[in-house]
TrEMBL record:
This is DUF3800 domain-containing protein. It comes from the Bacteria. InterPro entries: DUF3800.
Length: 315
């Protein structure tokens, strides 16, 4: 049986405006991966959308149902996600100690980081498995011969530790044609957003992303699955990786968002007390919400009526 792994990254260690870089691997047996792929395609078809899932581009909550439905489905499947966080200041310190340029260090890490992430996934699978690895298409990976190097390193690990698996294929795909790559991109984006506490931003984009993440986490047992199926590691410039509980970052986000939402619903109640017949469009304007946050208000109104925040999913 084939085990499939998909790899993506967010941010680069030589970007001066970035505190962290993120590298994620998403794995499952090929049968489950194909089922997930087909189900997500069906979700897209049912909602009449073909646009790519890409967390940084999620800036309008007209796509809320699409993202929420996909995330809710995926997190309840038998999948494992490993995400490695690199503190860019630590990376700069290492490059200075080695007396090499930061982009040269990035080239070195491009081989080591994926291999560590993939090994973390393969330790949990049965022996005698064939492994297929797919990475987001990137000219830099090709120039570094990342595909052949990762294949060689992974098979060396398997042989040395008698793991019994064989990496037969490492190749790239365009993310626009790969739903699994879009999925790992979205989960990396969520983790990065929460870790960097971007939810404190007053921008509409940050509020729209915060609403998506919060709605996703409060749906049934998603918070438990999110914490159990996503493993975070941090590289601090030494050989060992530090494992970090997801709860360290999620708790503050949930508390912040709960408080924020209660304040917003209180504002809605005050407006409706003075204008009990106010219509949605007028209410949105009174609240200072652009049309890109229309579904946020609808969620608040559902809660104020005693319904679930995500009850619109059933419509």
């Amino acid at each position: 049986m084939v085990y499939s792994i998909y790899f993506d990254e967010s941010g680069k260690i030589d970007q001066p405006d970035k505190l962290f870089s993120y590298y994620g691997a998403y794995g499952s047996d090929d049968t489950s991966m194909k089922r997930i792929n087909q189900t997500v395609k069906n979700i897209f078809a049912d909602l009449g959308t073909q646009s790519e899932l890409h967390f940084t581009e999620y800036k309008h909550d007209q796509y809320l149902k699409k993202y929420l439905t996909v995330l809710n489905y995926v997190i309840n499947q038998d999948v494992t996600i490993n995400i490695l966080i690199v503190d860019n200041h630590d990376a700069k310190r290492v490059s200075d100690q080695m007396q090499i340029k930061i982009n040269e260090l990035r080239s070195l890490l491009y081989v080591k980081i994926p291999e560590r992430l993939f090994y973390g996934l393969t330790r949990r699978i049965e022996s005698d498995r064939d492994i297929r690895i797919v990475v987001d298409r990137n000219d830099e990976y090709r120039k570094l011969r990342l595909y052949s190097k990762v294949k060689e390193q992974m098979n060396a690990h398997s042989a040395y530790r008698n793991n019994g698996y064989t990496v037969n294929d490492v190749h790239s795909e365009e993310s626009c044609n790969s739903i699994p790559l879009q999925i790992i991109d979205t989960f990396i984006g969520i983790i990065a957003f929460v870790i960097e506490k971007n939810y404190y931003s007053d921008s509409d984009s940050a509020k729209i992303k915060s609403d998506l993440i919060y709605r996703f986490l409060i749906q049934e047992d998603n918070l438990v699955h999110f914490q159990n199926q996503i493993t975070l590691f941090e590289w601090k410039g030494n050989e060992d990786l530090d494992k970090i509980p997801v709860s360290r970052f999620i708790s503050e986000f949930v508390l912040f968002k709960t408080s924020f939402d209660l304040n917003e619903m209180a504002r809605i109640n005050r407006i409706r007390n003075f204008k009990p017949d106010i219509q949605l469009k007028a209410l949105r304007r009174e609240m200072g919400y652009p049309n890109t946050r229309r579904n946020m208000i609808l969620g608040y109104l559902d809660q104020l009526r005693g319904f679930s925040r995500n009850s619109f999913l059933n419509n």
